[in-house]
Design goal:
By secondary structure, this protein is of the alpha+beta class. About 45% of the residues lie in helices and about 20% in strands. It starts with a helix and ends in a 13-residue tail after the last helix.
Length: about 190
């Protein structure tokens, strides 16, 4: 195939036909909701996140059983039980929001982010810095209703890269590119994220 024929095809068609490597470009500003969704997805995809979630739900269930016993008159109200119930509700629902706000504060002064995803990895730039991650540094990804979240290869996914779908006009193309580069994604996160 010569260059004139290659120019007639979209980047996706060229990549499928073995031509020039495909790339996807994004431009976005990260929000608190982006971080909340990314952190929730990460927690659902990692062993430590799943353990923490089950532990919190178990403690919450025990607190509810205790509350039912108190209301049925079979037990008295215990201050530690009330405190534990309040702390559990805060940890389950409040901590992820606080973490998301903290991540947002760390990135809010960097302005708009620009990302290029191609065969070599992901390059993310903002007004202060540019970072490049190879596919070996981010060997798996998650798809949520609004994001693609790249995860590091360690067991607890200690590093993540957030790519909002709204940052590109072709999120399907970005998803297809990620699927080609990272053939076994982490499980998809359902739409009802906390």
């Amino acid at each position: 195939m010569d260059d004139a024929q290659d120019a007639q095809h979209t980047p996706t068609e060229q990549a499928e036909r073995g031509g020039e490597a495909e790339q996807a470009e994004l431009a976005y500003t990260l929000t608190v909701q982006d971080f909340r969704e990314a952190l929730t997805a990460r927690a659902r995809a990692t062993p430590s996140g799943r353990r923490m979630r089950w532990l919190m739900y178990a403690v919450l269930a025990l607190c509810l059983v205790g509350a039912v016993l108190v209301l049925a008159g079979r037990a008295s109200v215990s201050e530690p039980l009330v405190t534990m119930a309040g702390a559990t509700v805060f940890v389950v629902f409040g901590v992820p929001l606080l973490q998301a706000r903290q991540f947002h504060r760390l990135t809010s002064d960097k302005g708009e982010f620009r990302a290029v995803v191609d065969h070599g990895g992901v390059t993310v730039a903002n007004r202060h810095s540019t970072s490049t991650l190879t596919w070996q540094a981010a060997p798996r990804y998650l798809e949520t209703p609004h994001l693609f979240v790249l995860l590091s290869g360690d067991r607890n996914a200690s590093c993540l890269t957030v790519l909002p779908k709204r940052g590109t006009v072709e999120p399907e193309r970005l998803g297809a590119l990620l699927a080609r580069q990272l053939p076994s994604p982490a499980p998809e996160v359902p739409a009802g994220t906390r």
